[in-house]
Design goal:
binds aspartic acid, alpha/beta, about 15% strand, 11 strands, five-stranded parallel β-sheet, 12 helices, four-stranded parallel β-sheet
Length: about 325
């Protein structure tokens, strides 16, 4: 894949070598993300960060990644504050806003909307989540995290066993992650959800056709029993027709320390795209796991900055210039 000037809309655009390239560049971003070095490589460049659905991590980590490369960020959040509320089409918004930015990140509640927007944009567009469809940068950072966590345990991706748990029907992060895993060999995926919230058939079929071993289960204890990674997800309340309907499923699968100790193999890594729903009636990942060293959710969020820096550096074609525009930091930067 030629990254220069490319839109990043779906994981389907990537081949295995592209993933290796993103991960290698992400590794090289560590001194900057950890505030040991500063680079001004994107000085003068502008990111248009357009989030029409709630977001903290994705929006802030895209923004931070761009800032860490020396660029500036302009934000639009929510429909209320946007001309879309006055009836403006995605086409017009894209034509106008792409004139003000060098690259755009966009999140929108409709599947396919970011691709439609990109079709009219004059600059590269990154999909920050389009409805229940895809969230490609999250899948990249998830796999980057899985690879790192396994490496810390002396393992590689080969033979990976992963359980995905929760609302697999609406969870765009798991849709993208499943597509990404199809590029790798010898992968075992266990899909744990209520039948009504099962992974879309097309995604499951796709994995089977790619040679992955896929098991479908409704039983959390069975699902997390023999895996390297337990990947929990939130019930995507905003995709249901009513809160009452979502409430039928909230709290159905709860992972806590006692369940972990009873059913998981030692060192099973716990992941979640976040936010975890910590309200008492949901509590999908209990706070009593916070001190469990295998809880990787905050390392996973940190890795998001590295992967997003890599995407910007590749799309704007500055990978080879990052270090030449750098110096050590001159402020207290403590240990992270
Ligand atoms: N932050 C992720 C997303 O935007 C996961 C979630 O919201 O549950 O899809």
């Amino acid at each position: 894949m030629d990254f220069t000037g490319a839109h990043i809309l779906s994981i389907k655009q990537f081949e295995r070598a592209d993933i290796e390239r993103v991960f290698k560049v992400a590794d090289s971003m560590e001194p900057y993300a950890q505030r040991r070095r500063v680079t001004r490589v994107l000085e003068g460049a502008i990111l248009g960060n357009m989030f029409f659905e709630p977001s903290t991590r994705t929006r802030v980590s895209f923004g931070s990644a761009f800032n860490l490369l020396g660029g500036e960020v302009r934000e639009t959040t929510g429909f209320k504050n946007s001309a879309i509320a006055k009836g403006e089409s995605l086409y017009d918004t894209a034509r106008v806003l792409s004139g003000y930015s060098d690259v755009i990140c966009m999140r929108h509640p409709e599947s396919g909307s970011v691709a439609e927007f990109a079709g009219a944009s004059r600059v590269p567009v990154i999909n920050g989540g389009d409805g229940a469809n895809e969230h490609p940068s999250q899948a990249l950072l998830d796999l980057y995290t899985i690879r790192k966590e396994l490496a810390d345990r002396g393992r590689s991706l080969d033979g990976l066993r992963i359980a995905m748990i929760g609302d697999l029907k609406h969870g765009r992060t798991v849709h993208s992650l499943c597509k990404l895993l199809c590029l790798f060999d010898n992968i075992h995926v266990t899909l744990v959800s209520p039948p009504e919230l099962a992974m879309p058939e097309a995604v499951t079929e796709n994995m089977r056709e790619a040679g992955l071993k896929v098991v479908v289960s409704e039983d959390l204890a069975h699902g997390i029993g023999h895996v390297d990674i337990a990947y929990a997800t939130r019930i995507q309340e905003e995709r249901f027709t009513s809160k009452e309907e979502a409430n039928l499923y909230r709290g159905r699968f709860r992972l806590n320390q006692a369940i972990y100790t009873q059913y998981c193999e030692p060192n099973t890594v716990i992941m979640h795209p976040l936010p975890r729903d910590s309200r008492e009636d949901a509590n999908e990942l209990d706070n009593d796991l916070n001190l469990n060293p295998n809880l990787a959710i905050f390392r996973q969020a940190d890795n998001g900055v590295l992967v997003r820096m890599a995407l910007f550096a590749l799309i704007l074609d500055v990978v080879d210039q990052v270090d030449a525009c750098a110096r050590d930091v001159n402020w207290y930067s403590g240990s992270r």
